């Protein structure tokens, strides 16, 4: 029977809620899939339950992650009220819950203890928040050391089907009590009680009006996202939850096989701690001095309860030979008479097995038992009922190596064997890979203690057995029965991280260790510069008094420490602002136009380095014009393209042969898209296939523009007939028909579509203009690239990307795509603007950005981009923007004075960024070959930022160092050393990328960064002679020459010898012995007289 709103139901229920509970609301699964839940009593469909997809689990985790900070910030009392209300609601509707469990997995209502246990546990944990305490220590002189107990964040909970409400409370309540949020996966065999308990009130016949559907969680006051419930099969929802990078701890009860898979998932994802309560094959040992009546009653109940479907059932009973016959008779007498029948009736005390799979599994073990042992009771399906009923079964004299003695049956089946001595039975009881529960029945206290110590199990009952456990003692398994322990305060420990805080109580300084880079035998070692070696104190208070106090205490073991700054008045400098006034110049481009180049552009910096040996011309002195490149590219003003027969024909756009297209696209994704993410790769290839199927006639202008820009980059290598990657990729047959277009041709096609791209002004327009900007920059159309990038940002503004605005019907995946594109644009905007030294469009001093970073669980960035790369790249990009705004001020309100303490704080911020980088992104850590380029570029960006911060000080020191007074010169020397160290570290990264073949000419950054390194090393040589610097310059020149000679890289290689010759550096091809002939520094200081402060 189908209920309203799509809910499925079957009598006796009027309506059963079967949807997923995510972020405080019921939702259907994203793919609409549902599975039928059959009654184990009647085999009829009880309900159609929605099955969670991967996307649903991702949304549940994202909701929990978003809700966790606010939930953890609540007081214990505020959280407590929710717990107590939920406990009361469950207690009130206990009968409803009992009937749901009877319907879904066959548990008799007469044996239902789950509801009271649930309420008791939530009541207990409602007041346990104050039990969480850290520690303090004064054992280290001068320190107050503390430990904090803090929640993990999002906790995954996977509960079994045999006692779902009890396990929900045992796991979720302590996790929630200490500030975690929960994503719970209920079993596909028993989802109904979990559904009612977690979010809603289910309709029974007693609830006639649909308006009375309540939400227990909402009624209790739990905020949305704190508890999320998904139902489905383990290979989908369970697997996603176990592998999820945002799930920080996971608790599971179930089979040992599944527990192993969960542990593997943890090791393959984020090494989340997992707490496992797994299967059992529990022994009970009955000695001749035991109370046989009580022992028989306890052991039979352990196997019979819940139809034997409990992990700690004493399914192996060992009886001493002298009382075996009497005990077995008592056991049969108590085990046999059960009331089999409808589990919803109170007189029934023995229900069916949970489903067909479980039923058939038990029958399989019965056949093994009949073959290996002696059947003395049961052994067959119960013929009195049509459901999955199995009669209580007893085997005796079963060999210890029989499968039924070694594996968990999970049914009302017991094996009773006989023993003679303590040693014999101890060995037999422990001869198993399980160790969840064990029991011993004896009146001899010494024997009881021997067995309590000797039995290999997490819990040992003396004169009692399962399901009896101690409320205030931990419960869990030895060996294959699990990891960790549960039980009141022990469960709290599962869901808390321990943090140590070492607080130095008698100094104003904070000691920060240097960042150590791991060594690789096959790679160069990264040079480190500990903070102590550069003697830079961080001004965290911005007060002159503390700055003076720190400066007066400064010491340094490095060369020049005797020249430490003593004069407090020299805490800032105006010289760099004067330098920047000279560097912010006009440059004549290939069209004959004079373009302004900002001070922080590497063009201005490189030109200043290359011309420092030349006497400045009157033109330079008067107009501050940077000379144009020696090799002009393009050589002349481009003509207006004639494209009427191509681009203006919407039904016949030009497309290259498919193999060429696939080569161009593969290179784009491997070398460009791994840095600048704009498309989900599956979506891109699906659209590309459609384009070739339809001949491109249905493609939008923006889509075609994107393709042409990609083809322009890829076709650059096609122009070299000896290109090895192209020859390897494309078959000899295809090479017989070459691509009719060159890079210039594809650029012309793309640019011809730009007006139509502007008119479309959608997300594809953003992509097209961004990719075209990259291509134009690569082919040295710097100004056009800057303009198109600005337009892409403006279209993004119009779509509300900066405020995370989206239509209400937008899918979660599309929302994450838009977020990722926004932050990619944010990075590209700054990088392209930096080539011109021009302002960014996305300037956060005047723009409020509200868009969060994308969830990589909802949207995986793909095989070429490692997880977390966008997040750390964005934080570094923001640091670079702050550095530019401080060191290279453009606005009139910005001060000309640069504080040394501010500069050193940026050094510390960059070092902290490097230290806090996720471990899988750190340098020297083994990575997937597809991630090498992304990670290499990330580290080049870091060293580039360090050079950007410190390079003005090195340049000024070389050019006008003699004019600096002694205290200022000390600061300039230290910052110059940072700059040179950063350049040499960048050399290591570039060498590794060159060796790994992950360096590329398809974007300008690789070449630009290498060129900047050469310029900085040249300044280092001007400052002092060094064979190491000579070798590094030679290595960089050689790597540039070995790169694919495309676009900007080709022009750099052509022009670089001329520029180096201006500096007196001569480098012959394939000769890394760079000959350097610099004038003396005293002469250099007079080369640029206009730099007088």
UniProtKB/TrEMBL annotation:
Coiled-coil annotated spans: none
Task: Enumerate the PROSITE patterns for this protein.
Answer: ALDEHYDE_DEHYDR_GLU
Protein name, UniProt field: aldehyde dehydrogenase (NAD(+))
- Which reaction is catalysed here? an aldehyde + NAD(+) + H2O = a carboxylate + NADH + 2 H(+)
Q: Which family does it belong to?
A: Belongs to the aldehyde dehydrogenase family.
Enzyme Commission number(s) from the entry: 1.2.1.3
Q: Domain named Xylanolytic transcriptional activator regulatory: which ranges?
A: 785-860
| A GO MF term | DNA binding
What's one GO BP annotation on this UniProt entry?
DNA-templated transcription
Q: Which InterPro entries match?
A: Ald_DH/histidinol_DH, Ald_DH_C, Ald_DH_CS_GLU, Ald_DH_N, Aldehyde_DH_dom, XnlR_reg_dom
Question: Is Ribosomal protein among the key words of this record?
Answer: no
Q: What class of enzyme is it?
A: oxidoreductase
Any Pfam family matching the protein: Aldedh
Q: List the residue ranges of the region (Disordered).
A: 537-572, 618-638
Q: Which UniProt keywords apply?
A: Nucleus, Oxidoreductase
